[in-house]
From TrEMBL:
One of its GO terms (biological process) is carbohydrate metabolic process. One of its GO terms (molecular function) is beta-N-acetylhexosaminidase activity. This is beta-N-acetylhexosaminidase. It is an enzyme of class 3 (hydrolase). PANTHER family: BETA-N-ACETYLHEXOSAMINIDASE, PUTATIVE (AFU_ORTHOLOGUE AFUA_2G00640)-RELATED. The lineage of its organism: Eukaryota, Fungi, Dikarya, Basidiomycota, Agaricomycotina. Keywords: Glycosidase, Hydrolase. Coiled coil: none annotated. Belongs to the glycosyl hydrolase 20 family. It comes from the Eukaryota. Residues 186-516 form the Glycoside hydrolase family 20 catalytic domain.
Length: 707
């Protein structure tokens, strides 16, 4: 394959063709980053990264922190070997760094300086800052705490990825000294797992990906219900008992909370969640779990109807004697699972006429969770019109809506700590949104120039139209920002792969703004710089393969089996679009609707009605395969849709759709994008014949993968 007019970058799993301009930082040119590096002062020479890399961890601090400096070093070692193809061997050793050991091998040093000082924009100290000092012999990352060193290793890997993208055969770093630190403490994304089930492995991979761009929180909205007003608030409230609602933490066998989780196969066991938290923590990301009460509580009232507010089945009756003790019992069971110092109790969109009941509940839960488990709480912003009571200032308010909650600048002036999740800038919704209220990805126009004056969004920007509702980057109680991806239309609206497509670029763009802000640092990226460097960096993100990139066997062919088979296994577990999966099939007439044609880790294709299965949902094409002949099928997928061409009839493509209930108002069709189920051919009772099987990559993916 001949490609001209560009440069190959082979990173992790992908090959990118790029021309990346240099970024001027501190008077000299170094590689751009996402997020951008605060400052760099150049000196003479370069640090050449050899094929054999020596990583030295300061033994005085190796065990400091949790994860420890050594823990982070081990993950860095693995990432280095994955992200830089010519690195053939890495070693980690523990050694004192003062004085520096002499070595002929260029060495990466990781150390702690307990007297180092880094501050957020509001002047508060932070553990997340770091320094990097580069000489021809050493690349030293120094921080106040292990988490700062970890972010420094992300900068190292990003510099390496961009260097390779610019055509370098080996990686070199300009000598000099750099300093970097985030502008805000909270930089995260929220995923609605209450209305859409996600495997823990997928969430762990999302943490790993987000970590590469220095995001530090995954807010996990772990309980909720679909919203259908006719079922919830219609005459007689008929249907609420069967409306989809879920609680994702699975209580142990025999627990009094067992009835809270009717869908055991759509919940995380304690060990699964502990492992997930460990995966995220080992990459610098904290999971903030949310159990949403007293609104959005249908999963609780379906379990215990006596707790519901009259006429509103998804609201808890806070004056009923057993309601608050029941909520406390839920937290008693699951709070010991959670490693974060904070949790969210949701507490949004409750009955305004019960303001005092609401405020009393929120304050009581704050006191209880603090006293029993030494954790603080967050709530979604909700303006409850009480003239006699107020929410405790110990509680962080996560602003999301004008005018539905308190004005954030007023909250800040009153002493409340605030996180910006303003929906105008920071809300997404899975697959479709009523009247296109929310985009599929964060709006690049808004985030680059959506603030008054066109300076771009940052966590201190709450309004795109009214500057009086915005504050300054150094506002003392402004903690940062979290963008949110909701799943209002439930499990069947999207696959996990489609959710990743929504998040991938949004994570990177948000990370630049949440770390550096807008119009604060001279080194912040421009939109052109971001757009140029993003393809290389998203492809380089190590430790995961969320977009299911694979290396073709030859040309664009992943695999090809020209014979006839009833069962066959391959080494390819899943392939992301765009791809074409073609085959001919003749079902057994004795069991024409039994078994699988193909299966993989993300999807399955059933012979019955050519039905795709993904994320626990079934999507039937509605085509019945004849049993008296071979039928040729060509399945073609992009990130937006999947369709089949039957017996070569290109004029009649057949699409896989989903049907979504849009808040009980109307039904909407949506296209589905599936990963190729490439691991097993046949199975689960299939007894027919499949032949002439071929899986190929299509379009840009061919040019993006090493062939």
């Amino acid at each position: 394959m001949a490609i001209t007019g560009g440069i190959f970058l082979r990173v992790s799993k992908a090959l990118i063709l790029l021309s990346i301009p240099a970024l001027c930082v501190g008077g000299d040119a170094i590689s751009p980053q996402i997020p951008s590096v605060e400052s760099f002062v150049p000196s003479n020479g370069v640090f050449e990264l050899p094929p054999i890399v020596h990583i030295v961890v300061d033994n005085e601090y190796a065990s400091h922190g949790s994860p420890s400096l050594l823990d982070f070093a081990k993950v860095f070692q693995t990432d280095l070997e994955e992200a830089i193809p010519y690195v053939t061997n890495t070693t980690i050793s523990l050694s004192p760094l003062d004085p520096d050991p002499t070595s002929d091998i260029p060495t990466i040093y990781l150390t702690i300086n307990s007297s180092a000082q880094f501050t957020l924009y509001n002047g508060q100290p932070t553990d997340e800052g770091y320094q990097f000092e580069v000489t021809p012999d050493t690349y030293r990352i120094t921080a106040l705490a292990p988490i700062g060193v970890w972010w420094g290793t992300r900068t190292f890997l990003q510099q390496a990825a961009v260097d390779l993208a610019q055509g370098a055969k080996t990686v070199s770093f300009p000598a000099g000294q750099g300093v970097d630190s985030p502008g805000w403490e909270v930089r995260g994304f929220m995923l609605d797992a209450g209305r859409h089930w996600f495997e823990a492995s997928f969430l762990g991979d999302l943490c790993i990906y987000a970590s590469f761009f220095k995001l530090n929180e995954l807010h996990l909205h772990a309980s909720d219900n679909l919203w259908n007003p006719a079922f919830l608030y219609g005459e007689g409230n008929e249907g609420w008992e069967k409306l989809y609602a879920a609680f994702r933490f699975q209580p142990p066998a025999g627990s009094a909370l067992d009835g809270l989780v009717p869908r055991k196969n759509e919940s995380w066991t304690k060990q699964e969640f502990l492992d997930l938290q460990q995966t995220c923590a080992s990459h610098g990301v904290t999971i903030i779990p949310e159990v949403d009460t007293p609104g959005h509580s249908l999963v609780i009232t379906q379990w215990k109807p006596e707790l519901m507010e009259s006429g509103q089945p998804d609201h808890l009756n806070l004056s009923y004697p057993e309601t608050i003790p029941t909520i406390k019992s839920i937290w008693d069971e699951f709070l010991p699972w959670f490693s974060a110092a904070e949790v969210s109790i949701g507490a949004d969109e409750y009955d305004a006429s019960l303001a005092n009941d609401y405020i009393s509940f929120v304050n009581e839960m704050s006191t209880y969770i603090g006293a029993q488990f030494n954790k603080s709480i967050r709530i979604w912003g909700t303006n409850e019109p009480s003239t006699t009571m107020s929410v405790s200032e110990n509680i962080t308010i996560q602003h999301w809506d004008f005018p539905g909650d308190d004005i954030p600048v007023q909250l800040l002036s009153q002493g409340y700590r605030v996180i910006n999740s303003e929906q105008t800038f920071l809300y997404l919704d899975g697959k479709t949104s009523e009247d296109n209220q929310f985009p599929q990805q964060l709006s690049e126009d808004l985030l680059w120039s959506g603030a008054p004056g066109g300076k771009g969004w940052a966590p201190n920007i709450f309004s795109a139209t009214d500057p009086t509702n915005n504050t300054t980057p150094d506002a003392p109680n402004l903690r940062g920002a979290i963008f949110a991806l909701w799943n209002d239309w439930g499990n069947n609206a999207t696959t996990a792969l489609e959710i990743y497509y929504q998040l991938a670029k949004s994570v990177a763009l948000f990370s630049e703004k949440a770390w550096a802000g807008s119009d604060v640092r001279a080194t912040a990226l421009t939109r052109d710089q971001f757009d140029t460097v993003y393809p290389a960096l998203t492809a380089a993100a190590p430790g995961q393969n969320l977009n299911r990139v694979v290396k073709p066997k030859y040309g664009n062919v992943v695999y090809e089996f020209p014979g006839t088979y009833s069962t066959l296994s391959t080494e390819i577990t899943s392939v992301g679009p765009p791809y074409t999966l073609s085959f001919s099939v003749k079902p057994d007439p004795r069991s024409p609707d039994t078994g699988l044609l193909f299966s993989g880790i993300d999807s399955k294709l059933h012979v019955a009605n050519l039905t795709f299965e993904a994320t626990g949902q079934l999507y039937a094409l509605g085509y019945v395969l004849p049993t008296d002949k071979y039928t040729s099928v060509s399945i073609r997928a992009t990130r937006e849709y999947t369709y089949a061409v039957i017996d070569g009839d290109e004029t009649n493509p057949r699409y896989w759709y989903t049907l979504m209930d849009i808040w009980g108002d109307y039904m909407a069709l949506g296209n589905m994008s599936f990963a190729a189920p490439s691991h097993n051919i046949g199975g689960s009772g299939f007894s027919g014949e499949i032949r002439d099987i071929k899986l190929t990559l299509e379009g840009k993916q061919v040019a993006a993968i090493l062939s």
